[in-house]
Amino acid sequence: MNTGGSDGAAFARRAWQALEPVHAVTYFAPECLAAHREVGLRGFWMGYFGARAAPLGPVPAAVVEAAFYNFHPAMVRRAVPDAWSFAAPEAVLRARAAGAAAALRRTAPSATGAAAELLPLLTRVVAAADAAGRPLFAANRDVPAPEDPVAALWQAATALREHRGDGHVAVLAAEGLDGCEAHVLFAAAEGVPPETLRDNRGWSEDDWRSATTRLTTRGLLTPDARPTPTARTLRTHVESRTDTLAARPYTTALTPTEAARMLTLLTPVTADILASGTLPFPNPMGLPARE
Q1: What's phi and psi for 227, nearest 5 deg?
Q2: pLDDT band per the 50, 70, 90 thresholds, residue 3
Q3: pTM (2 d.p.)
Q4: Using the 8-state DSSP alphabet, how is residue 3 labeled?
């Protein structure tokens, strides 16, 4: 793909919007939740932290706190490292992929037919991506590809999702926004109910108020907690920079024709998942609703 700059960034954003629902079945689909339970993980949040962190190996809580970024540390520590005493990461990875494949086959029957052509394209993009400073991407990139093509499709989508996410974390950190502040700013700017983000990331009402005060002091929120023009400029910069950092693998690995084909193949898969009602809107991933 010989386009760069803003064109590449715009494509990376479209790719994220298409790939995120494919990845996100792992958090919400009953097949995935059951797979986490069956392998031994206890409760939704141990399933979440154990499954998402499993590519890193049996790491301590501090590693998960750093890599996941926007969760309250106490929330992480309630699940990790205890998760590894219930299920080894290798077993979790197998269960995670099998659950995701089953969920995709149910919610997006088109995934089965698309996988044969789509998977080689995504695999090339994953191979072209730089892992430096991207721990979740690096770990997912090195997960052996499942033999099941739908599971392999999900794993490739997950690796690219985490590549973008690692870059997003780097931008937030560079702009001096901690995990709670990032959620407060997002909720204020997008009109998302605070509890959707606060409660799903383990922050207390006191944490939320403290973050709101810090953002107000920085001139990013008004006294009534509305985003200022400076805040909107900052959010635009964060999203734009995230897109730019995510673009290089696509521009390196794919021709314009292949990039367009990738999106064409993904479109019905994504549409099926969204139509299934499996993913909630609004959601803590920041994925926008579609008509």
Answers
A1: -70, 135
A2: very low
A3: 0.94
A4: -
